[in-house]
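Thread: quick sanity check before group meeting

JM: Hey all, I'm pulling together slides for Thursday and realized we never actually wrote out the predicted structure for the chain we discussed last week. Dropping the sequence here so it's in one place. If anyone has concerns about the input, flag it before I start.
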Amino acid sequence: MSLTKARLVIFYGMGGLSDVGRHALQAALEKSEEIESITVLTKYPELLEESNWNCGCPSGHSFTEEQKQKFTLEALQSYDGIESHFQGATAVVSCLGNRQAAIGGWEAHEGNAAVIQAMKKHGVKRLVVISSICIGPKFSLHWIAGAMKLVFWLQARPAHKDLIDLEK
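JM (edit): ok, ran it. Output follows.
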C-alpha cells in the first residue's frame, strides 16, 4: 500500500524566513520522501537570499541551488486571493510572527486569520504556527518571555498587540 505524499505550504512574513522560517523549510526539505511539494508564500521573497540571521546553528542556513529546485517560491502583495495556494495542501506552516520590535510590519494576527480562512475553504486540517517569541500569559514558562513581553509592551505596542492577538 502506498502512502499519499504531503503537500506543504509554508507562509512567512518579515521575520519568518530568517532563522525560524529557514528551520521550517529545511526540515521540510529533509523529508522529501514524505512531501510531494513545498510551496513557500511571502510578501518578502528577497529574504530568502539574505544570509542567516544568526540563529546559532553551526551549519548556517543558506539554500543551495539544488534545494531551491525542490520548492516553489510565490511572492504575494496582499492576503487577497491566497486561497488558491492552499488547494490540495495537506498541511500549512505559518511563520508570520516578527520578534524584531523596530523592523517590519505587524501582520501575524491578520495573516494567520487569512491563512485559516483559506485552509477552511480547501479542507486543510493541519496548521503549525511558529514564532520564536511567545509573550502571552499562557506561554510565559520562561523568564525571558516575561522580559520580552515587557520590552514589546514598552517599546513596540503595535508589535505587542499583534503577537498577543496571534497567540490568542
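AS: nice. The chain has a mean pLDDT of 75. The helical segments are 19-30, 65-68, 108-122, 143-155, 157-167.
JM: adding both to the slides.
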